Amino acid sequence: MSTRPIPSRSAARAQAPYALVKQFLRDALASGQYPPGALMPSEAELVQRFGVSRMTVGRALRELAAEGLVDRVQGVGTFAAQLGKVASQLMIRDLHEEISQRGHRHRAQVHLARQEAASPGVAAQLGLAQGEPVFHTLIVHLENEVPLQCEDRYVNPAAAPGYLGVDFSQTTPTHYLLEVAPLWQASYSIEAALPTAREARLLGIGAGDPCLVVVRRTTNAQHAITAARLVHPGTRYRLQGEFAP
Predict the structure, then answer these.
(1) Residue 113: which residues within 8 A CB-CB, separation 6 or more?
(2) pLDDT of residue 14
(3) What is the rounded average pLDDT of the residues 69-76?
């Protein structure tokens, strides 16, 4: 168990009991005290520590699980989640796994993998000073030899210093980064747009062919991790999910 102090009685009165337990665990996860896969405090430990009911602790854990921050295993315990999960309605998935689950073949063409000086725009996204080193990769992902995604990615060296040493023809940047720099937060935008001339050439499409463009930035408790532009030919890719009120 953590030695982190319990909030004072005056602070406790300002929050519902379950919210105190939930915030305590969120803070511990954010600080890296429980890395992905680590066993979290048991319900009994939390009941004793906070002097609340098991029902109260259960509510805190259920909400953390719904947010994708912990995984609960019946009869075993609660574990810090592999934080590819951003929220209950959004998950960052490894494209290789996604394609394999469809029974298809994934192949990656690495067109660029190098260290560069951060431009003003990239520096702002990654919390760096202009001109500081940044890692840059440009990769085209193919499904059954058909280009599916052009991935233009910048990575903060402080978050993943070994990034450029990875063979990205064998493992995806997403898979590697989720292992070495589990994200805590992500922001993204999705739009229909035309590809750049280079993107059209790499994807084997026309300059006027519409694309689905996802721009995503991820961070952990210490650093911005990566900023990526993911371009998909509109006729070959779709986003889908489920919603229940």
Answers:
(1) 135, 136, 137, 138, 164, 168
(2) 54
(3) 84
Q: Are 230 and 212 in contact (CB under 8 A)?
A: no
Q: How many Å apart are CA 179 and CA 52, to the nearest integer? A: 35
Which parts of 52-106 fold into alpha helices (H)?
A: 54-66, 95-101
The larger pLDDT score, comparing residue 73 to residue 133, is at 133
DSSP reduced 3-state for 35: coil
Structure tokens at 86: 């951003």
Q: Is the pTM of this model over 0.85?
A: no
What's the mean per-residue pLDDT of the chain? 84
Domain range annotation of the chain:
9-81, 87-233
Domain 9-81 has CATH 3.40.50.1820: no
Q: What are phi and psi of 229, to 5 degrees?
A: -115, 115
CATH class of this structure's domain 87-233: alpha beta
H helix and E strand count, the chain = 8, 10
Q: How far apart are CA 15 and CA 25, in angstroms?
A: 15
